[in-house]
Amino acid sequence: MAVGHYYQRLQGRRFFARLIQARVIQPVRDGFEDDAAVAAGIGFTDVVKRPTARAGQVRPDELRHGCELLERKLSRVGGPPLIFSFKAAAVALVGKFDGNGWVEETFAGCRLFVMPGPYEKRASAESTIETLAPQLC
Questions:
Q1: How far apart are CA 107 and CA 35, in angstroms?
Q2: Which residues contact 77 (CB under 8 A, 6 or more apart)?
Q3: With b meaning 16 or more CB within 10 Å and e meaning fewer, what string describes 33-56?
Q4: Residue 16 CA neighbour count, 13 Å, CB half
Q5: Which residues pair with 110 in a beta bridge?
Q6: What is the end-to-end Cα distance of the chain in Å, rounded?
Q7: Is-contact 63 48, C-beta < 8 A?
Q8: Which of 2, 16, 24, 65 has a CA between 20 and 30 Å from the CA of residue 34?
Q9: What is the pLDDT along the chain (137 residues), one digit of tens a residue?
Q10: DSSP characters for 50-100?
């Protein structure tokens, strides 16, 4: 992972490829799609600000604290849509729900979009991704 850049490994490349497919960001030559996303007004955050090898290593108290901080920050910026690269992250914020794409649940007044999972059938994943950009406005 390049220092100072989000999502630089395989899963990250898939995430950015999907944002490009949805026409949320434009392709870039340097490979730092996170910079292009920030330039397009997309921010990134971690609920828990320490690296772990697996989500299971995050303690419940850390997660609660991070969710409270994120909720306060989001309430100050007017509830932008939140795009999740992994469903587990959205579940950590709002609890269990069915499906992906735009979901009924909200967090801090923000609408939630969950990217399709890595093993979802291609046609289904592409259909879900196509719904992202038109509803960001």
A1: 25
A2: none
A3: bbebbeeeebeeeebbeeeeeeee
A4: 22
A5: 107
A6: 31
A7: yes
A8: 65
A9: 456 777 777 777 888 889 999 998 888 887 788 888 888 888 788 888 887 777 788 888 998 999 999 999 998 887 788 998 888 888 988 999 999 999 999 999 899 999 998 888 999 999 999 999 888 86
A10: S--SSGGGS-HHHHHHHHHHHHHHHHHHT---EEESSHHHHHHHH---S-S
What backbone torsions phi and psi does residue 102 show, to the nearest 5 degrees? -75, 125
Nearest-angstrom CA–CA distance, 118 and 135 = 23
Token pair belonging to 94 = 């709002």
In this prediction the pTM is 0.83
Query: What's the length of the chain?
Result: 137
